[in-house]
Each structure stands twice: as C-alpha cells, then as structure tokens.
Design goal:
- By secondary structure, this protein is an alpha/beta fold.
- The chain is built from 8 helices and 7 strands.
- The chain has a 7-stranded mixed beta sheet with strand order 3-2-1-4-5-7-6.
- Strand 4, helix 6 and strand 5 form a beta-alpha-beta unit.
Length: about 210
C-alpha cells in the first residue's frame, strides 16, 4: 500500500475518504452495494467474526434481541446466526445494503434509510440486550458522538460492542467520548481488544461496554 492510500482496494480507499455527510455516504453505498461483499472478502475482512466471538463470550443467552447498527450487507448478522443468535434486527443508512442484508435470512427485521445519528427516532423501544456496530466507526462515516446515540437503544444492563479502525481512533475524539460516558456512569467498560485483526489494510480496536 502506498503512503497516500488508506487501502489497496480502490472502493474501500474511496469509502475512507468520504466526508461523513449522510447523503454522500448513502449514495456511495448505493453504488457500491453489489460489489461490497466481493471487495471486503478480497480484503480479508475479519471484523464480524472477531466481534461476534467476543460477544458470545459475554452473552450466553441466544434468544434475546440484538441490534446490528449499520448492518451493511449483513456480514455481522450471518456471523451472529452462526453463533446461534436468532433474534437479530439490523438497520443501515443505505436501503440497497439493507436489502442485501435481508436476503441473507440472518435477521428478524432489517430496515434501510436510517441515519445513525437520528436512530432514536426509529428505535424508541430501547430494549436490545446487545448492540453491535462493526465497520461503522471509521473515517468518513459517523462521528464519535454516535456512541451516545446507540447507547440509548440498549436496555439497562445490555451490552454494546463497537469496532474502531485504528486510524479512526487516532484521528477523532472517540476516546474522549468514551471517557465522558464512563465518567457520567452511563456505561462501564467490559473489555477492549487493542490492535486486533480487521482486514489486510490494518487493525482495529474492539470495545465491549455494558449500559449502567
């Protein structure tokens, strides 16, 4: 990989250079949806497998509601299904990506056109036993403030599992957002795996929290 590229894959590199504007991101993934799985497969994308294995170490109940926030084409849902979880919902900003996730049959319910920063408007129940957001907290996609938004969708005592690409963590105030939520006793930090495999372009950190 050359110094001026974030990924050897042209589409992934372009995704990491988005400006975070929801409409820009939405259009980009509308265009990329049909080739997304191919491109991520070629990049040896291990994030979903690592995340679901970590969740299974702390959530033994299989028939509890789980939300895949920013589900994309459903790679996390497929990994959760392989672990035995059967009540998985998903949402994504891109309806094209959400349609592909629904086609995996790994989800109970999937919906597109959901802006993560406004997810409380569409998910007011706040009853999920666990929430995962894998591959979303990355450059050009959502700000670290989305962490607090997602926390509102989890039931008290529920788990929240987030991946952050290493360069996202280094270039944003994600740690500051975590520190604020910890200091206000909104959540506790269960486990963090630093610099773990993500894809062949780089590593990621995996954060497991419990809502107070």
């Amino acid at each position: 990989m050359t110094d001026d590229k974030l990924s050897t894959n042209a589409s992934i590199d372009a995704a990491l250079r988005l400006d975070g504007d929801p409409q820009t991101v939405k259009q980009f993934y509308a265009d990329w949806a049909q080739n997304y799985d191919r491109d991520t497969s070629e990049s040896v994308y291990t994030g979903p497998a690592i995340a679901t294995q970590l969740l299974s170490q702390h959530l033994s109940e299989l028939d509890v509601p789980i939300l895949d926030a920013g589900c994309g084409t459903g790679l996390v849902g497929v990994a959760l299904k392989a672990q035995g979880y059967g009540l998985v919902d998903g949402f994504d900003l891109s309806p094209e990506m959400a349609d592909l996730a629904a086609a995996t049959a790994a989800y109970r319910h999937v919906v597109g056109n959901i802006d993560m920063m406004r997810a409380q408007e569409d998910y007011p129940r706040r009853d999920y036993a666990a929430l995962l957001s894998i591959g979303v907290f990355t450059l050009g996609h959502v700000p670290p403030q989305a962490l607090a938004v997602l926390l509102e969708l989890v039931r008290p005592g529920g788990l929240m599992l987030i991946s952050t690409r290493s360069h996202y963590y280094d270039q944003t105030d994600f740690q500051s957002q975590v520190d604020t939520l910890l200091a206000t006793a909104c959540l506790t930090q269960v486990q963090t795996i630093w610099d773990a495999p993500y894809n062949h372009d780089g590593d990621a950190h995996y954060w497991l929290f419990r809502k107070a």
